[in-house]
Amino acid sequence: MADHFVAMNRGVQGTKQTDFTTGTTSSAASGIELRILDGAGWTKKEAALALKAFERFVETAPWVAAAGVDVKL
Q1: Average pLDDT over the chain, rounded to whole?
Q2: Whose CA is closest to 58, among 48, 73, 47?
Q3: 20-23 sheet: strands from edge to edge
Q4: Given pLDDT bands bounded at 50, 70 and 90, which one contains residue 8?
Q5: Distances from the Cα of 38 to the Cαs of 5, 13, 25, 48, in angstroms?
Q6: Which residues pair with 20 in a beta bridge?
Q7: I need a labelling partner for 34 at 20 to 30 A (CA). Which of 19, 21, 49, 62 fits?
Q8: Is 48 left (phi over 0), alpha (psi -120 to 50) or beta?
């Protein structure tokens, strides 16, 4: 089984398919990416809930600071 990646660069809105880079290899040139493990059985609903949880994480300054993630607050 492989992982699949969906990545995007800074400055794009993600409103069209060409805003994204997809494939089975991580994109070192992209600023952010999502990795999905093939065969893990995630549903669309579970994935949407996980994405909302990541959004909460990024918006919670103490969590970002504790994790050492380099996101300007």
Answers
A1: 90
A2: 73
A3: 20-23, 3-8, 32-37
A4: very high
A5: 10, 26, 13, 16
A6: 8
A7: 62
A8: alpha
Average pLDDT (16-39) is 88
Which residue's entry shows tokens 């909302």?
Answer: 52
Task: For residue 51, give both structure tokens.
Answer: 């994405």
Closest Cα to residue 35, out of 44, 43, 25, 45?
Answer: 25
Count of positions (residues) in the chain: 73
**In this structure, are residues 48 and 42 in contact, taking their beta carbons and an 8 Å threshold?**
no
DSSP annotation of 19 reads: G
Nearest residue to 22 via CA among 39, 38, 6, 46: 6
